[in-house]
Amino acid sequence: MRIDIKDKVLSKNDIVANRLRERFAKSGTFVINLASSPGSGKTTLLEKLLPRLKDSFKLAVVEGDLRTENDANRLRQVGVNAVQIQTGDACHLEAAQVESLLEGINADELDILIIENIGNLVCPASYDLGEDLFFIMLSTAEGDDKPAKYPTIFFNADYFILNKIDLAPYVDFDIDRCVRYATDINAELKIFKTSARTEEGLDALADEIARLATEKRATLILR
Amino acid sequence: MHEVGVAEEVLKTVLSIAKENNASKVTEVVLKLGSISGVSADALQFAFDAIKEGSIAEGAKFQIDIIKAVGVCADCGKESIPDTFFSICDHCGAPTLEIVAGKEFEIDYIDVE
């Protein structure tokens, strides 16, 4: 007997992610899912970026790694509320892991929640974490053709942060070529060029996140 | 490599539908998988074959039909089948391609006894 299904595989993850999205809509919390390869500078960027936002917004970070609490500790040292997920050997974060930590960081009172995903340019593309926007980050040390090599995650992203731009001349990285690859994959991508080390571009990125978080909070007031 | 988790979701759905239909055996599972869904067909096949052991889907044939990414150009209106640069129209070269297929991931049908 043939049973027609023709239904999306609505995975357990999608169900939890939708529940999270509803919850964040109610609380007006603006949520970013930040993915990149390992070593592109996600945590360093957050260390330098979040002090620019933490006086105006209640914010927290969920840190994902296979092992160690190092990244959450680094953010706590700059006065940012951070919790660590250790996935063991899993290559991406799942919505249920994020959900399980929300009470501990008073998520419903937050203006901004940033989820720093596992360093990986493949698997995080497939797991919705209930975020408002998906940020993909790349550093110049990785090679300017990375978007073309990992197109799916760039296609799924809303924002593209190109970090370590101060290193570009030393590692033969062609910024224009990289940006062209990324926008040929996803013409809607919004692009920010940063150096977490020199802090170039961080004010602009902080302003953008402040704008987005304020917009989200406004939806709450209008309702 | 996250396809084991994905395969587990598929198997769970298949087994629950088979049970609702009082089936004792699943003989075939057919999936539709978009080429830019983020799931690897080979890895999914491998994972499904490994985890179906011991279930009523143990002997099931697992078929994955790949749906290629298709885009329609908002500028010239023509269709492209992009492999990597999903915004670029093959015909006029404009970055105005809108993807209309290729992100699917669904169970098409199952055969049960």
Give a description of the structure.
The complex is a heterodimer of chains A (223) and B (113). Chain A is α/β, with parallel strands linked by helices. Chain A has one domain (12-216): 3-Layer(aba) Sandwich (Rossmann fold), CATH 3.40.50. Chain A has helices spanning 12-27, 42-49, 70-77, 95-101, 146-149, 151-156, 175-185, 202-222; strands at residues 2-8, 30-36, 59-65, 81-86, 112-116, 133-139, 159-163, 190-193. A seven-stranded parallel sheet of chain A has the order 4-3-5-2-6-7-8, with helices on both faces. Chain A is globular and about 60 Å long. The relative contact order of chain A is 0.18. With 113 residues, chain B is of the alpha+beta class. Chain B has one domain: hypothetical protein PF0899 fold (2-Layer Sandwich), CATH 3.30.2320. Chain B is 26% helix and 31% strand. Chain B is built from two helices and six strands. Chain B has helices at residues 3-20, 41-51, and strands at residues 26-34, 61-67, 70-73, 79-80, 97-101, 105-112. Chain B has a three-stranded mixed sheet. Chain B has a three-stranded antiparallel sheet with strand order 4-3-5, with no helix packed on it. Chain B is elongated. The two termini of chain B are 33 Å apart. Chain A binds chain B through residues 1-9, 11-12, 90-92, 94, 122-123, 125-127, 148, 151-153, 155-156, 181, 183-188, and chain B through 1-2, 5-6, 9-10, 13, 17-18, 21, 23, 31, 36-39, 84-88, 95-97, 99, 104-113.
